[in-house]
Amino acid sequence: MTSTAATTRYALITGANKGLGRETARQLGRLGMTVLIGARDDERGERAARELREDGLDARFLRLDVTDQAVVDRAAADIRREYGRLDVLINNAGVVEADQNPSETTVETTERIYRTNVFGVIAVTHAVLPLLRAAGAGRVVNVSSRLGSLHKAADLAAPHRALLAYNSSKAALNSLTLHYAREFADTPLKFNSVTPGAVPTDLSCHQGNRTVEEGARVVVRLATLAADGPTGGFFDDHGPVAW
User: Fold this and answer.
1) Residue 18's Cα: distance from chain center in Å?
2) Which of 18, 164, 179, 203 is spaced 20 to 30 Å from 57 by Cα?
3) Residues noted as catalytic
4) What mean pLDDT value characterizes the chain?
5) Given a cut of 90, is residue 76 above it in pLDDT?
C-alpha cells in the first residue's frame, strides 16, 4: 500500500447519485476523502461520480442496491479489494410512501419501505463492518428524520405527517443506531442518527425549507467526528433530537 493510500480516507454513501447523498459526497470530497457513490443505476451513478470528479473531487461509482444481498456483498468485496478499509459509512438510501391515512397503508407498501430503510441498512452495515473496523475509527451515520421521533409523534395535538411505513421505518432505524452504538461502545467505532431537516429532494417531492447543502452539513459533521465525539445519538444541526 502506498503512503497516499494509507492516509486517504474512504467514505461510502448509499443512494448518492442525487439529492442529499450526492451533496454529502461533494462535501466529504472537499475535505479530501475518496467518496464512493453507491447507486443502483449504473448510468446515474457513473454520471454523478463523473460530475464530482469534474469539480476536482475523488469520486468513484460503486454499484449498490441495498435491497439485494448479493449486490451488497459484491460491493463490500470490491471495497476490500480496492481499498482495504472503509472510514465512513453513510446509510442515506431511502424511500417513502404516498400520503395516506395510516389505516390505509398496506402490508406490501410497508414491506417495500422497510426493505430499503431498515433491512438495507442492516445488510450494508454488516457487509462493511470488518472494513470499518479495519479503519480503526470508523464512523457510521444513519440518515433518519424527525418524522421517526416517537417523542414528536406522541404529541397528538401537534401537526404531524402521519406516514405509517416511512415514519416507523425511521424510528426502527434510530433503534438500530442505538443497538450498534451499545455493542461497539468500548471501541473507536461511532454510530449516530441524523435528521437533515426538510430539504427539497426527490424523496420530499422537492419540498422543504432547507437547502441540500444545509442538510448535508450535519451529516458530514457526524461523519467526521473526533475521537471524543458522541456515539448513539440522534442529531440535527442544533444538537440532540428527542427520540
Assistant:
1) 13
2) 203
3) 166, 170
4) 93
5) yes
